[in-house]
Amino acid sequence: xxxxxxxxxxxxxxxxxxxxxxxxxxxxxxxxxxxxxxxxxxxxxxxxxxxxxxxxxxxxxxxxxxxxxxxxxxxxxxxxxxxxxxxxxxxxxxxxxxxxxxxxxxxxxxxxxxxxxxxxxxxxxxxxxxxxxxxxxxxxxxxxxxxxxxxxxxxxxxxxxxxxxxxxxxxxxxxxxxxxxxxxxxxxxxxxxxxxxxxxxxxxxxxxxxxxxxxxxxxxxxxxxxxxxxxxxxxxxxxxxxxxxxxxxxxxxxxxxxxxxxxxxxxxxxxxxxxxxxxxxxxxxxxxxxxxxxxxxxxxxxxxxxxxxxxxxxxxxxxxxxxxxxxxxxxxxxxxxxxxxxxxxxxxxxxxxxxxxxxxxxxxxxxxxxxxxxxxxxxxxxxxxxxxxxxxxxxxxxxxxxxxxxxxxxxxxxxxx
Length: 417
Fold this sequence. Notes:
InterPro entries: DUF222. The protein has 417 residues and is of the alpha+beta class.
């Protein structure tokens, strides 16, 4: 402590960050074999306190970056995009950082005043180096589950108690203590109401794995669950919507021929989960056919599936195509998916890269891209065209774009051939 207090440190944050970087560089080259076991443990403890304090520094820094839109200086559209792609953290870690910042960050109010953190006791513990981001995420998750009917004072006391026990427990221990706290606050679940369910509802696609499969994370309201159950009972019934069976009835069970359905059910060897997946595919195909028929209403445009693929990949039915949102799609499955769509061709740079936005119904897509040219649609240069090209750009490997906004028409359009 004496050596620490004798140091003369700069006041400028950038200069302080440079000092930390220089110190860690020097520390990385240090010979730990030359110190005693006690000194090793003391050093490990000191560094852990530093890591945790830096979590608080990180929150304060990201609040400023967000409030001032500093990420735009490097060409990013959001804080999440900056964290995920600019700092190469990935979507998962970027979400965790943002959740932590929302819990312990000191944001600026409408009148320019500095607001108290959402979890003030937790923020204090982080700044003291007593807990880290993992503890913060557990505390935030528990606080989010406290029913809205619980009064403000009780909610504040709950956060203080969680922050207090977090100083002595692991993140897993905080989770266990939090569950006990929730059981005490709402033992029979009677305090949970519609506000809580609306706040916690979600449906999110997880990143694709090495086999291009995606998991889904969801928290469904009772109403959505009830609708989904009755729909799957019909569309995912044994024998219905089986892609491996050409004689399988399509659509809802109520509209199927009873004899054909019974025969298809006998041949159906899918699991319940596989039937549910195939039912969802059939539902989405039916929805796209419905909107393509001009029944979207309100003057809205029907949805489009925009895919980039090279002429060689399409001709050989091999390789991986990319959607406008960054999803990787095997070309063999692309041809099947586009079989019931009206394809359009748009040639981009580099030569040989094509976008096939399709909607509606038409004969099966076969042969090269030149065979697929139909009407000449309008593509939005600033949105659709840019988003599609970016997915193939070598400057941004792995860079995912959000779905283009198809319902807003920029001033400039380009008609493609």
